[in-house]
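Page 42, continued from yesterday. The earlier attempt failed because a stray header line got pasted into the input along with the sequence. Redoing it now with the clean sequence only.
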Amino acid sequence: MHDILAITHLLNHLFGGVLTSLFRMVGFHPVNPAAPIDDTFALELLVAAGLIVFFLIVRFTLSVERPNAAQHIAEMIHEFTGTQGEQVIGHGHEKFQPFVTCVLLFILLNNLLGLLIGLIPGVDTPTAHPAVPLGIAVLCFLYYNFHGLRVHGPLGYAKQFAGPVWWMSPLLFPVEVISHLARMMSLTIRLYANMLASDLLVLISFSLIPLLLPAGFLGLHFAVALIQAYVFMLLTMIYLAMAVSHEH
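This time it went through. Structure tokens are written below.
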């Protein structure tokens, strides 16, 4: 992003000095100490703030007799993620539904910001920057492993890595550990590569034909944004189901 967004200027003006001091305390030196917050992180914060405001509106305007538009949208999302959770995770999926719903919505809204490419200078898709999908992937990795440990205990969860045959455990255990770590890479690369490719197609289309051609690629970007957010959520559910399952 070459053009700095107004929200980035504001965040750096309010919190830039404090963040730079905190970074230096832990031995990290920002590339730009005067403006440690970049546009990508600012857009992520904007999405997170928007989701918080949306959930607060739904919570404080909740009504059985006269539900508003926000409540209808929230109920549709809740029903969708609940259905997916029941199919993938099964019994007890309700406790994981808030997390996977937030993952879905956060990725989806960040993906959809790419629709503003070419319209608002400085805006692109945050998930087209590898640090963003990597951060979400690491969070999901920690989340499902935490619940695996919570449900089975350290020893019981470790048995899932050892395989069904005890004498194969020395071989299977490191393979399983590597495969679990590779899940973070898989989630990251899939989301990052698809959104980056979609961004590039939209930018190229705007440079070739400013009106008709970009409309088609923006539609394609919208479809990719939906699919990638859904796939990320679905894989997170699958990993959770495998982690908490009592079947071996």
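Notes: Residues 169-208 form the longest helix (40 residues).
Reminder to self: strip header lines before submitting.
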